[in-house]
């Protein structure tokens, strides 16, 4: 079923993220209200932002120190994420950027690992974005039946944006790293 222990680990991590996202659907509003009342909402989102950036770095760089070009790409990615993060008017909407970026990175890496092991995965990046789009859409569809939640196509857009940003960042970082390795 899996081509390597790494691929298995990546799929299990992706599954854990999906379970975490779906299992908190009923609690999200309560949790956000509680964090807001304790004045911790911004801190929690900033920590989530750091986890997301760390995931991009870890996935993109694997095991070595970055060179100047890779640092430039990383800084660019961090700035773009920060700008999008700060422009999101409703703090709770930022969760989409965090959750679905991490999910997209894990799925993209799992598909890329599978491809590198000789299995047929024609285009890992668009496929990862498509899978995350479907999972994000399912997230919204589930909310139709939950009290106090609503289906919001804008949230689907945030999920797709998060997936595109994360996968693009990962591909860009990998591209720069491959160019470094070829020299």
Structure description:
With 183 residues, this protein is an all-alpha fold. Helix content is 78%, strand content 0%. The protein has seven helices and no strands. It has helices at 5-23, 28-37, 41-61, 68-87, 94-116, 124-143, 153-182. The longest helix has 30 residues, at 153-182. It is globular, with a radius of gyration of 17 Å. The mean pLDDT is 84.
What general outline do the C-alpha atoms trace? Answer: globular
Question: In whole angstroms, how far apart are the ends?
Answer: 36 Å
**Radius of gyration (Å):** 17 Å
**Percent range of helical residues:** over 70%
Task: Give the biggest beta sheet.
Answer: none
Number of helices: 7
How many β-strand stretches? 0
Brief write-up:
By secondary structure, the chain is mainly α.
How is the topology of this model organized?
Layout: H1 5-23, H2 28-37, H3 41-61, H4 68-87, H5 94-116, H6 124-143, H7 153-182
Question: What distinguishing features does this structure have?
Answer:
183 residues; mainly alpha
């Amino acid at each position: 079923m899996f081509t390597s222990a790494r691929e298995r680990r990546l799929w299990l991590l992706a599954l854990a993220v999906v379970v975490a996202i779906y299992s908190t659907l009923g609690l999200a509003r309560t949790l956000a209200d509680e964090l807001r009342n304790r004045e911790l909402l911004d801190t929690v989102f900033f920590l989530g932002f750091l986890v997301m950036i760390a995931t991009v770095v870890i996935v993109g760089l694997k095991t070595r120190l970055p060179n100047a070009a890779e640092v430039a790409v990383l800084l660019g990615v961090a700035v773009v994420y920060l700008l999008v993060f700060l422009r999101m008017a409703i703090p709770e909407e930022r969760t989409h950027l965090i959750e679905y970026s991490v999910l997209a990175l894990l799925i993209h890496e799992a598909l890329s690992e599978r491809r590198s092991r000789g299995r047929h995965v024609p285009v890992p990046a668009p496929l990862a974005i498509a899978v995350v789009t479907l999972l994000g859409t399912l997230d919204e569809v589930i909310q139709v039946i939950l009290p106090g939640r609503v289906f919001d196509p804008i949230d689907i857009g945030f999920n797709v944006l998060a997936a595109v940003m994360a996968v693009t960042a990962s591909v860009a970082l990998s591209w720069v790293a491959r160019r470094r390795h070829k020299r």
